[in-house]
Design a protein that fits this description.
Blueprint lengths: L1 E5 L13 E9 L5 E9 L4 H16 L3 H4 L2
Length: 71
């Protein structure tokens, strides 16, 4: 999984808008290389809500509950 923060270079917009967070999910190919499989952009002001939405997205993308897979 990769998270990237994208800032808008359009300076005509008000500065209070949150940055875009892109979440990319990769799968491991037979040759051990990572292949991009899914991505989604999020733009939420609340960090708690952002984390919650990213967690839900990752769980749907991998088809598993993250909390159940932690050992």
């Amino acid at each position: 999984m990769e998270l990237t923060k994208h800032k808008d270079s359009d300076f005509s917009k008000k500065s209070g808008e949150p940055s875009v967070i892109r979440v990319r999910i990769f799968k491991r190919a037979m040759n051990e290389e990572f292949v991009p499989e899914h991505y989604e952009d999020f733009q939420l002001e609340s960090l708690g809500e952002l984390a919650e939405q990213i967690e839900k997205y990752v769980q749907l993308a991998i088809g598993a509950n993250l909390c159940e897979n932690i050992e």
